[in-house]
Amino acid sequence: MKKILFIEDEAALQKTLGDVLEQEGYKVLRALDGEAGLKTAQAEIPDLILLDLILPKMHGFEVLKELKSGEATKDIPIIVLTNLESMGDIEKALELGATTYMVKASYTLEEVVGKIKKALGE
Amino acid sequence: MSFREILEQLNIRATCKKYGLGMWRCPQFLFLVMGTVIIVTAIITYVLGTRYVADPNVVSLIVLVLTFILLVLTFSITRSLEGLAEANRLKTEFISIVSHQLRSPLSNLKWALEILVSGRFGKIEGKPAGYLQILADNTKRMKELVSSLLMVSRIEQGRLPLHKAEFSLADLAKEAIAEFKPIALSSKVEIALEMAQESLPQAFGDSSQLKIVIENFIDNAVRYTKGAGKVIAAVAPKNGGLLFSVKDGGVGIPKEDQKHIFQKFFRSGNILKYQTNGSGLGLYIAKSIVEKSGGKIGFKSEQNKGSTFWFTVPTKK
After folding, report:
1. Contact assignment for A105 to B106 by CB distance below 8 Å
2. Residues B172, B155 share a domain
3. What angle do CA A105, A107, A109 make, to 5 degrees?
4. Interface ipTM
């Protein structure tokens, strides 16, 4: 069973997207802030990480930077899932090594699940 | 400007009240005061200089004092104009903040509803399904309104991002039409795409933004077609660029409303009778996008006969 780490401080999204991913047959690890997300990623080495940007304790960009500089975590695909949509944020995330950048408000849940499957090579 | 409009413009007290400004902070009133001061100054200087005071020094002094008064007035006018500009900026910023804050809860709501409607965790049937659909439809409407408001605030702050590249205008039109097919079908409207020729040059612009314009044209055409009807979209070459148009046989726009059609929040009197949905932002946004893309936008319309809306987009030189 593939492991997906979902770093997101909003409980509603943890519930909607997290539950749907579980139903799709993934093991979903959940983190509610940046620091916890980074620790879980380093301890569990998930197959994919969903990362919000505005997070308590540690900003998403910091988490991204740390993950991409760690030997064990640098190859994990990371999907940035946020409501920030300035070109600057998108470029920065991709530059830091994010696989995909998605603006939550622009996608349906099915589309997000589709992108996740694609990133996992399914 | 007709005489009546000039008089209305001169109703300064009402205008200042509308802006929520005190008289001494209201540009219209200050301009009037300044005009009066200039005229009075000229007369006084003339009368004093020609009849009572022979000494040119005194006359010069009077002129100097009055000029100083004018300077103070001009300064106040500038300040009051700055106040108006600041109020406008705050309004735009307010729209931007509110829309951003509304987005997160709305996308949460949208996803939760999507799960319920999809029946992933158990199907909801019968009457409750109907209520669920109402929730889903209205969330969608709210989301669209918030996106439009965000777009307007970006336009007004001059921050509308355009990422220009080459794209096929015909393909973009086909994509948009396909999205509207279900809605059109349910209101018995047929949408057709006509192409002037097989191979058209690539358009050059931001396709995701121009798609918003195309969607807006088609949405309006379907929306304002009463009963069954046909909507014809067309792509054709025009003056070295490309022309996209949408023609409908709908309710049309009354002559007196035509000049306001691209104004923000404007909604024509006759459509309010048929259809109350709509924010009056679509065509305002469309105009901004088209003009920023280096194209032109326009329409032809006759009440009860229908409308044709068009825009042009450049090709890569």
Report:
1. yes
2. no
3. 110
4. 0.86
